[in-house]
């Protein structure tokens, strides 16, 4: 593992757990404010649970199905530069594969032809479109496809100045969006507003262009764009796509942070597998890099419990659980630190990072979610190789 660097922020945690399912190992970190020596920490396992006893109190963590602690395997390990603040333990786990747990609920993975779907606003769960049965569900080419079109054709580019648009009963899948035709009810559920993106100020700026933003009429959440008079571009972070089953009513609005984490994490993992890359440049629609992301692993199971929750847990709160998570390194181009600027310059010079386009507001949300994740990590875990570390729930 790369040498860890000191954090730029104040990080404090009571108990932090990361399990690696493929390696069947785990790392447990306990703050010195919770336990002063390894002898003060006793770890045992139950059925899909992990019990941690400290002087501050007992903690029971629910583990995902198929993950169990190997009794007696928890042993102290050096904490390096952070030995004054943290106690580190290594442990082993047993894993039995659970196909249901690994299944993805991402809209990009579940859409199928000849099936009927309903589309809801993620913010307020208002139904946005009439139920759709698509005759064709097709992936769009890679976002850089037109850069290599000369390698395909022996005559002038036949796609020049032409958009790839869906037919009335098509659904076209981009990396982070769906393209589909409008229907008769759109005027009742959607609003359209023209906005200018880009700026002519600055040496690296791009010319302004007009963008027809589509929003939910009920809650004003920006859902996507109108890329043509009769074509919608809906971002997967903004809509909930579900099979239309009888008269089933949609569930209450999902927690925004959790929905955003799960949607983005599942999509990054899918793109990583299909494109054989671990580097992504999260960009706004004007092509400006907002966040640089380096995927580390998608088999983590994590839990972070603050010290305040150990002594007197609320009896009305459910037991904390360890959840599947995508571990990543990240850097923001807006960060003014010298090391971060070096990272950004290197990525730009070497064209590192598959572009992943999201609305500006979603990029800002995602950065906040990632920063919040980083702030819950122990000091020894929050930085690596000049990058910051975060986890996105799966």
From TrEMBL:
Principal EC category: transferase
Record field: transmembrane: none
Pfam families: HECT_2
Reactions catalysed: S-ubiquitinyl-[E2 ubiquitin-conjugating enzyme]-L-cysteine + [acceptor protein]-L-lysine = [E2 ubiquitin-conjugating enzyme]-L-cysteine + N(6)-ubiquitinyl-[acceptor protein]-L-lysine
Swiss-Prot/TrEMBL GO biological process terms: proteasome-mediated ubiquitin-dependent protein catabolic process; protein autoubiquitination; protein monoubiquitination; protein polyubiquitination
EC numbers: 2.3.2.26
Superkingdom of origin: Eukaryota
Cellular-component GO terms for this entry: cytosol; nucleus; ubiquitin ligase complex
GO-annotated molecular function: cyclin binding; ubiquitin conjugating enzyme binding; ubiquitin protein ligase activity
Function, as annotated: E3 ubiquitin-protein ligase which accepts ubiquitin from specific E2 ubiquitin-conjugating enzymes, and transfers it to substrates, generally promoting their degradation by the proteasome. Independently of its E3 ubiquitin-protein ligase activity, acts as an inhibitor of CPSF3 endonuclease activity by blocking CPSF3 active site.
Summary of subunit composition and partner proteins: Interacts with UBE2C/UbcH10 (E2 ubiquitin-conjugating enzyme). In vitro, interacts with cyclin-B.
Record's protein name: E3 ubiquitin-protein ligase E3D
């Amino acid at each position: 593992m790369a040498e860890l660097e000191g954090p730029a922020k104040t990080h404090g945690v009571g108990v932090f757990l990361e399990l690696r399912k493929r390696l069947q190992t785990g790392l447990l970190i306990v703050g010195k404010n919770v336990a002063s020596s390894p002898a003060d920490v006793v770890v045992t396992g139950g059925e899909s649970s992990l019990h941690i006893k400290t002087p501050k109190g007992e903690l029971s963590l629910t583990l995902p199905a198929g993950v169990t602690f190997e009794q007696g395997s928890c042993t102290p390990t050096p904490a390096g530069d952070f030995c004054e603040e943290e106690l580190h333990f290594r442990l082993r786990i047993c894993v039995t594969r659970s196909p249901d747990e690994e299944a993805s609920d991402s809209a990009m993975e579940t859409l199928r032809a000849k099936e009927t779907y309903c589309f809801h606003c993620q913010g307020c769960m208002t139904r946005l479109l009439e139920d759709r049965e698509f005759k064709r569900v097709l992936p769009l080419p890679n976002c850089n496809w037109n850069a290599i079109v000369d390698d395909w054709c022996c005559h002038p580019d036949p796609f020049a100045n032409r958009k790839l648009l869906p037919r009335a009963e098509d659904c076209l899948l981009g990396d982070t969006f769906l393209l589909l035709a409008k229907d008769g009810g759109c005027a009742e559920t959607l609003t359209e507003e023209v906005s200018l993106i880009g700026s002519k100020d600055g040496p690296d700026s791009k010319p302004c262009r007009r963008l027809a933003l589509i929003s939910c009429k009920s809650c004003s959440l920006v859902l996507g764009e109108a890329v043509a008079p009769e074509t919608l571009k809906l971002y997967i972070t903004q809509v909930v796509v579900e099979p239309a089953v009888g008269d089933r009513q949609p569930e209450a609005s999902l927690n925004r942070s959790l929905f955003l984490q799960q949607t983005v994490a599942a999509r990054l993992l899918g793109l990583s597998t299909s494109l054989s890359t671990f580097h992504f440049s999260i960009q706004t629609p004007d092509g400006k890099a907002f966040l640089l992301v380096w995927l580390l692993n998608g088999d983590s199971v994590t839990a972070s419990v603050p010290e305040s929750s150990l002594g007197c847990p609320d009896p009305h709160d459910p037991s904390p659980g360890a959840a599947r998570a995508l571990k990543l390194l990240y850097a923001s181009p807006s960060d003014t630190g010298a090391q971060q600027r070096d990272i950004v310059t290197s990525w730009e010079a070497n064209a590192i990072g598959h572009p992943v386009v999201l609305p500006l507001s979603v990029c800002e949300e995602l950065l906040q979610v990632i920063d919040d994740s980083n702030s819950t990590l122990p000091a020894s875990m929050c930085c690596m190789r000049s990058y910051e570390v975060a986890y996105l729930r799966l």
